[in-house]
Amino acid sequence: MRIARFSIDGNVAFGVVEGTALPSGETPGPPGSTGGGLVLDIIKGHPFAEFERSGQKIPLDKVRLLPPVLPNKVVAIGRNYAEHAAELGNSVPDIPVTFFKPSTSVVGPGDPIAYPAFSDEVHHEAELAVVIGRMCREVPRERVGEVILGYTCANDVTARDVQQRENQWARAKGFDTSCPLGPWVETELDPGDLGIMCTVNGEQRQLGRTSDMVRPIEDLIVHITEAMTLLPGDVVLTGTPAGVGPLNVGDEVAVTIEGIGTLTNKVIKRG
Question: What residues form the membrane-spanning segments (predicted)?
Fold first, then answer.
């Protein structure tokens, strides 16, 4: 099931996406929308509890897609693909490297990525994002699936030069618009071996598979919840494959994940 969050006529709601998605990268209609005959069946309530479909359906190209969730926090994992760690001159850590991206960094499909004035080297990082469905802490490995709502596409946009010169990654990875999410949450998906691709202006930059993760999602959720409570709508970023590279003002960057869809954003000059 694909669950989207959207706005229409000033109202915000969740809906179940029905129909067959467009081929990767095609996003007709207004910014943040995806057409191609897809429709939204508006749900009563929210997706973090049992809900009913209203039966009221709206063509997807008539709405603006929003970030599929508004997380209290985004917990991200660094260096979880060995080839990516190596390409930046790093070894694979003995334990997962965790960091936060604030809620203010989150934007949705079609929203602009504003190039920060304090950086001269901003990179894309295509990632599978895990969306938490219920409050949880100290989750046993065998019960991780019970706390996951589903999965979406993410771009862990990073000011690489700032990351390299500052001991903490808060500014480098937490600036406004540095966490595009979308286009929706896929709830029925085996994340163990999915293709991940990133293109910039239609040119392939990253291509990998989730099976290349150093540590699988179950281990990441166990590790994180040993330390903190995750809330419904929180997001866990699972790391990026090799191939990260620069973004420039005017670029269009797209993250495509097998079984989910494509998240597309354009880079603009920060005003």
Answer: none
Number of other residues whose CB lies within 10 A of the CB of residue 25: 14
- Of residues 250, 149, 153, 142, the one with CA closest to residue 197: 153
pLDDT, one tens digit per residue, over 120-135 is: 999 999 999 999 999 9
Domain stop point among 21, 40, 65: 65
Q: Full-prediction pTM beyond 0.85?
A: yes
- Quick one: 91 and 188 in the same domain? yes
- Segments forming the whole domain that contains residue 192: 74-269
Rg of the chain's alpha carbons, rounded to an integer? Answer: 17
**Hunting for tokens 């950086």 — which residue is that?**
119
β-strand 261-269 against 113-115: which pairing, if any?
A: parallel
59 with 87, same domain? no
Rounded-to-integer distance, Cα 65 and Cα 59, Å: 12
